[in-house]
Amino acid sequence: MGFWARWRAKRALKRAARNVKKNPNPTNAAALIDAYLNLGMLEEAYTVGKQAMELYPLSATVNSALRRMFRAKYDEQVRSLRDKIRVQPSPTAYAMLAEIYNEMGETEKTIELCREALEKFPDYEGSYLILGRIRYNRLLEEGCPHDGVEAVENFEKAVKLNNSNYKTLLRLGALYLELMMPRRAVDKLKMAQMRRPDDQEIAALLKTAQEMAPERDDDIEQHFKELCERKRAARESEILLRFSIEELNNIFSHLGELPSGYIIVAITPDGRRLASHTFRHIIDEQRVILCVKSIFESADDACKKMDIGGLRRAVFVGATIQLHMFRFDDMVVALLADAKAGTKAVSEYIDALIDKELYATT
């Protein structure tokens, strides 16, 4: 990069940083990532990218910038690790590559790679730990009992191979405590305390576990079902959105035109209406809500059974109708449009809704 090109790139970086500070949104975050990349500042781009991943996970603009950032940061390392795995596979090479994929948000690739590694190196704890973390995070995000069971099984296998890993022992102890299984919690927390005798968190959790009545059985799956049901019931009374219902209705009431659109609705996963906007008055809103609720439940359940996590965004195209659906915080948003118009324009409309309205309102 020549002198003037670098000077312009630095000015663009300062401008992008000011814009993010003044008006944080996906478009400005993506511009800041690209500004850092243009100057070869990979670590700075990575720091902003990680924050943007957490703040704007559904943003097409941010995800496009993240792909550019991850290519710049990891492409050479990914190629090198893949070559090592092909020529002389080792458990550490598998684990390093899996961690990179996990860092990039490529969860399915990460799981597939860990399973491949375990077929060749079943006694390596690293793969179990990665799988356990993925399942544990899914449990926190989506509340699926199956992910909880898988998380525990993988963590247990890891500590069986290496019982000096006090962090995993602590995580297991805390998880068993949340499951109302104090006997198992005490076992793991005592092992963790042997390795960190002065850790106050371990001591507090152990005291709580020892004061609880012992569990009635060892059916972990049933305990996870009960835990997830308790959390679901607690959340039913409070819709968790990053803006108010009034703000959401204001967004929907000022939506731009979509020539092929029929109606867009926002509902809770259990079917309660939050907001709607009609493009053409030819479809009954209540029937749409019932239909969207049923389709979301079926599609979300199918995704979980396929072990790819809950539904985030999907498109269903029929002979006359196309249905676009996405999950945003504690709501499901669905847009019905004329199938003859094609999906591209509707997808771009939803991208703009997410980036310029939903995320920009926070």
Count the E strands.
5
Mean model confidence by pLDDT = 92
Sketch the major β-sheet.
Answer: 5 strands, antiparallel
Oligomer: single chain
Order of helices and strands: HHHHHHHHHHHHHEEHEEEH
Give a written overview of the molecule.
The protein is α+β, with helices and mostly antiparallel strands. Among the domains are: 3-75, Alpha Horseshoe (Serine Threonine Protein Phosphatase 5, Tetratricopeptide repeat), CATH 1.25.40; 245-358, Dynein light chain 2a, cytoplasmic (Beta-Lactamase). Helix content is 66%, strand content 9%. It has helices at residues 3-22, 26-38, 42-55, 60-87, 91-103, 107-120, 125-142, 145-161, 166-178, 182-195, 200-211, 220-236, 245-253, 285-305, 344-358, and strands at 261-267, 273-278, 313-317, 321-328, 331-338. It has a five-stranded antiparallel beta sheet with strand order 2-1-5-4-3, sandwiched between helices. Strand 1 (261-267) and strand 2 (273-278) form a beta hairpin. The model has no long low-confidence stretch (mean pLDDT 92).
